[in-house]
Specification:
Blueprint: H1 3-31, H2 38-62
């Protein structure tokens, strides 16, 4: 992986982490509202988990492979 690809991955990682954090804040506020649509909340939580998985994949790509 060249430096340009690594920079793109770091940018993507930053975007994903920001979206994950924002979604977490929204979910935490909505959980306190007893009138919240549970289906909407469930979809948000699912999206948050997807973001977490994507973050983990990008981070693993940024870690250089170790030679055996």
């Amino acid at each position: 992986m060249d430096e340009h690809e690594a920079a793109q991955l770091r940018d993507k990682l930053q975007t994903l982490v920001c979206e994950h954090r924002d979604l977490d804040d929204v979910i935490n506020r909505l959980v306190q509202d007893p009138t919240i649509d549970q289906l909407r909340l469930s979809r948000m939580k699912k999206r948050k988990l997807q973001l977490k998985d994507m973050i983990a994949r990008v981070r693993s790509r940024l870690i250089p492979d170790m030679e055996a």
